[in-house]
Write a structure and sequence with these properties.
By secondary structure, the chain is of the alpha+beta class. It has one helix and eight strands; from the N terminus they run H-E-E-E-E-E-E-E-E.
């Protein structure tokens, strides 16, 4: 009789220890998962905040635009923001143009703060004296749009 009571007491202790180990293992697994999850969430949020801040710091205008001979579009973009920017799109009347800078370098024209850069493209326009919409788009999604008149050929 004494041996039966002793083994019954040991089995309760083993069961309690096993339950504690299982609960601890599940708790540690949950802790590791949530720590990893929140770490990714934090880094994603930081990336979004950095991009939003850069978007606010990026400021530019079309300083000058010339549309000549009904085909040559030359746009001077001035970066008055506090960070460098990259021009990734030039739209004339809503149509995306192939762009180059003065040196003929294609898409992705970088402009440092406080400087301007000419963006050049060719397109077929209606006629001299007509008004065209010119829009410049940066890599961060900012844009500047204005209307300009096609100049008569000289």
């Amino acid at each position: 009789m004494v041996g039966a009571k002793l083994s019954k007491g040991i089995s309760e202790i083993v069961t309690a220890v096993l339950l504690i180990l299982i609960v601890t293992a599940v708790g540690i697994g949950l802790l590791m998962y949530s720590t990893n999850y929140f770490s990714y969430q934090t880094s994603d949020r930081n990336l979004v905040n950095t991009q939003a801040t850069n978007k606010l710091l990026e400021n530019f205008i079309i300083a000058n635009a010339m549309v000549e001979n009904n085909e040559d579009v030359n746009v001077s973009v001035y970066n008055y923001g506090s960070i460098s920017m990259t021009i990734v799109g030039l739209y004339v009347n809503g149509n995306l143009m192939n762009i180059t800078n003065v040196a003929g370098v294609p898409l992705g024209i970088k402009i440092n703060p406080g400087t301007n850069q000419w963006v050049n493209s060719s397109t077929s326009l209606n006629s001299a004296g007509s008004t065209v919409s010119i829009e410049v788009v940066s890599s961060l999604g900012n844009y500047y749009e204005n209307y300009y008149t096609v100049q008569n050929p000289t």
